[in-house]
Design brief:
Elements: H1 3-20, E1 21-24, E2 27-32, E3 35-38, H2 46-64, H3 71-78, E4 88-90, E5 93-95, E6 102-106, H4 112-119, E7 123-127, H5 131-143, E8 148-151, E9 154-155, E10 160-166, E11 183-190, H6 192-198, E12 206-209, H7 215-220, H8 223-229, E13 232-236, H9 243-254, E14 259-262, E15 266-270
Parallel strand pairs: 6-7, 6-12, 7-8, 9-11, 12-13
Antiparallel strand pairs: 1-2, 2-3, 4-5, 10-11, 13-15, 14-15
């Protein structure tokens, strides 16, 4: 039994807005234990995405499980969730966002993981190339004390412009997969290595990536970051059949000191200090 969809359909579908939607001086916004997102409650396409997959992957653990990313908890829940969380701890192997971390959010959508990172005391560089989604991400920046830095670019292994298959503000826009009723939008692409160098970013502590099959290209464009800063990694591995093997190989070649742990749909990696 997949307990997460059952939980949401029977419970959160009815009370989601009542539970998480708050009223501020400038209007309504969602507040997930300090992680704030723009009010999309009237959007029949975006709200279900937030209620289900996004809440499950980003906010279920902090809101309902006290941010407990212990190996035993995560591995149990991973068997009953669509994609699983973006955190994992096993002793000194600790893939969680910490105070003062610099976080790279690749595939930021409207800023859910970036907002979570800010709620933990981090700063997030949020990469979201699609125009409509980027506008909502910019609203998330304002809601989160401007500690989210929106970047309207995608991440890959080269600088270029490409056409992306866009399905409104869906969280699943892709350069690889055509979707029914989708449109094309030209977007700018850069590499993480180049972005970090050009913006004089002194460290990178955490990389989260869910970019619809482009994770391997993003990692190839971040080899210097992986080698120099050894950030914690939480990377989706379910878009392409060979993602687990290919992504681990890229990581290990960039920095052989990485330890990699695979769950059903994500890998977690870190250089464990002795």
């Amino acid at each position: 039994m997949n307990i997460a969809p059952a939980l949401f359909s029977k419970y959160y579908k009815n009370i989601f807005k009542k539970k998480w939607l708050k009223k501020g001086k400038d209007g309504f916004y969602f507040d997930f234990k300090g992680a704030k997102l723009p009010d999309i409650s009237d959007d029949g396409n975006l709200l279900p995405i937030l209620q289900h997959g996004v809440f499950e992957g980003t906010f279920l653990f902090p809101c309902l499980l006290n941010d407990d990313y212990n190996k035993s908890v995560v591995e149990f829940m991973d068997q009953h969730m669509g994609e699983g969380p973006y955190g994992y701890t096993d002793g000194s192997f600790d893939i969680t966002v910490k105070q003062n971390d610099i976080v790279i959010d690749a595939g930021a959508w409207i800023g859910d993981f970036s907002a979570y990172a800010v709620s933990k005391g981090a700063i997030a560089y949020a990469f979201e190339p699609v125009e409509g989604t980027f506008q909502l991400l910019h609203q998330a920046m304002e809601l989160n004390d401007r500690r989210i830095y929106p970047v309207q670019k995608g991440l890959a292994d080269r600088e270029c412009e490409i056409n992306i298959s866009v399905d409104g503000c869906s969280s699943g826009n892709s350069i690889f997969f055509e979707r029914e009723n989708s449109t094309k939008e030209k977007i700018a692409i850069t590499t993480l290595d180049k972005f970090v160098k050009e913006n004089n970013i002194e460290k990178v502590d955490f990389i989260k990536a869910d970019i619809e099959g482009a994770e391997r290209d993003m990692l190839r464009g971040a080899t210097n970051v992986l080698k120099t800063f050894a950030p914690k990694l939480a990377i989706c591995t379910y878009h392409l059949p060979d993602d687990p093997e290919v992504l681990e190989k890229i990581i290990s070649e960039a920095n052989p000191d990485y330890k990699v742990v695979h769950l059903r749909h994500k890998l977690f990696a870190a250089v464990v200090k002795q």
